[in-house]
Amino acid sequence: MSSGVFQAVEFAFECRLPNGLHARPASHLSETANRFASDCLLTNLRNGAHADPKSVLATIAADDRAGDACSVSVEGIDSETASAALRQFIDNELPACDEPLAEAVPGGATPALPRSLAAEGAKYHAGLP
């Protein structure tokens, strides 16, 4: 490795977050990735999007959804250590960074319009969350 060329270390995983890889879990992933000097690349195999997991916004933009097949590639001076840490985090800690959304309860009361809108005779369609 004295030539400065590093072998990429890659692993695959399935996104097990019920709400996908949104801001909160992406920020935890970013904290882990930023502990290392190596370059990291997160790939969503469903849509082909690539992201640097060191960037929360880039990670969110990859649109990783529950059940998506993904991969992480790490290349650099500490790629073995970084890859192992990222894999451990994704397998063991990332799923606990999120909770499923509460189930919608059908048949609830229709919310009232604010008085100012009701006074104007506004019409609306109520939906379920």
Descriptive overview:
- The chain is of the alpha+beta class and 129 residues long.
- It is built from 4 helices and 4 strands.
- The protein has helices at 23-33, 56-61, 79-93, 115-119; strands at 9-14, 39-44, 50-51, 69-75.
- A 4-stranded antiparallel β-sheet has the order 1-4-2-3.
- A hairpin with a 5-residue loop joins strand 2 (39-44) and strand 3 (50-51).
Q: What can be said about this structure in brief?
A:
The chain has helices spanning 23-33, 56-61, 79-93, 115-119; strands at 9-14, 39-44, 50-51, 69-75. By secondary structure, it is of the alpha+beta class.
Annotate the secondary structure layout.
Blueprint: E1 9-14, H1 23-33, E2 39-44, E3 50-51, H2 56-61, E4 69-75, H3 79-93, H4 115-119
Antiparallel strand pairs: 1-4, 2-3, 2-4
